[in-house]
Amino acid sequence: xxxxxxxxxxxxxxxxxxxxxxxxxxxxxxxxxxxxxxxxxxxxxxxxxxxxxxxxxxxxxxxxxxxxxxxxxxxx
Length: 76
Description:
Layout: H1 7-20, E1 28-30, H2 31-38, H3 42-49, E2 64-66, H4 67-75
Antiparallel strand pairs: 1-2
């Protein structure tokens, strides 16, 4: 049995899958995802963090945030 791996083909397929993934500026996070990223409990995030002046504004229905905005806020 030949188990040779074509690493160039594998790399091409991985790169193709990565290129199809949504970019941070296209991804929306709900309160739980934001809380998980920031290492807070969901309730604390929703009641305190999300209401802080300077925290990114929620999008759409008011219960989702752009991932890129949350990450940028956390890094500053």
